[in-house]
User: Which sequence fits this backbone?
């Protein structure tokens, strides 16, 4: 696999320099996207609305810059995804976070979210934003690994995928860990990035507490049709461990899918 994490200052400086020389943007005015950066709906219980306000200001949470939550809930993330330079900057910040510490934070927040005194009623009623928050919290680790994946030239795989206008479905597989199924007819580019991303997702798909457990197998079969049967594991890899959270109804965001399709085909 080509998953590479920041290991020393030299690597960090090399990556930063490569971003700074990109002519498509100026790093000085960059603002990191944030989850739920548009107005929350009014369809919350009072206790859940109060919890959300506290949750979004939680410093341990905000310092993680969770890719898994920004994908579905950040308007700014949608905007930066139009620029290879900007999305690379975003991923750079996301991947600076300590995955182990942040995964622990996300797991605790997921448990707090569905507690009776917080959003249990909203969760039971399938409140879309509560489900997005929960799925994003428990899918932090697989999407951290996928989001921080680089190709052989050092570029982030997701940055390549989401800005590839000649293959407009390359970014679709990244939504699988959030419970969003791969759209029929998706023909993502059969490269090492896709292969490694699917291998990461396969390793989590055997965990029934993860949304990817509901979306991986069908997606892998679609990828195998396009890329060949040996390209990807067509069933989940053996389960290595259970996440300390409960399962959730996997409700894809139709609005998100439509927004992504409209952008890619504009």
Assistant:
């Amino acid at each position: 696999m080509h998953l590479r994490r920041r290991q020393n200052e030299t690597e960090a400086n090399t990556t930063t320099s490569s971003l700074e020389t990109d002519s498509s943007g100026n790093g000085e005015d960059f603002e990191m996207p944030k989850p739920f950066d548009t107005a929350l709906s009014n369809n919350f219980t009072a206790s859940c609305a109060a919890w959300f306000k506290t949750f979004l200001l939680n410093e341990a949470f905000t310092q993680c810059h969770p890719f898994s939550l920004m994908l579905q809930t950040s308007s700014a993330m949608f905007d930066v995804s139009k620029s290879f330079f900007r999305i690379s900057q975003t991923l750079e910040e996301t991947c600076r976070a300590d995955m182990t510490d942040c995964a622990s934070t996300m797991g605790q927040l997921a448990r707090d979210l569905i507690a009776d005194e917080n959003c249990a009623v909203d969760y039971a009623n399938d409140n879309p934003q509560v489900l997005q928050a929960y799925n994003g919290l428990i899918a932090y680790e697989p999407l951290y690994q996928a989001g921080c994946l680089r190709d052989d030239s050092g570029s982030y795989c997701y940055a390549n995928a989401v800005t590839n206008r000649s293959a407009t479905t390359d970014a679709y597989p990244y939504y699988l860990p959030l419970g969003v199924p791969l759209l029929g007819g998706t023909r993502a580019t059969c490269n090492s990035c896709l292969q490694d991303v699917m291998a990461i997702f396969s390793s989590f798909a055997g965990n029934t507490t993860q949304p990817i457990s509901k979306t991986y197998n069908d997606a892998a079969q679609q990828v195998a049709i396009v890329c060949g049967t040996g390209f990807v594991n067509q069933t989940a890899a053996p389960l290595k461990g259970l996440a300390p959270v409960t399962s959730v109804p996997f409700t894809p965001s139709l609005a998100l899918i439509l927004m992504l399709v409209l952008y890619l085909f504009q």
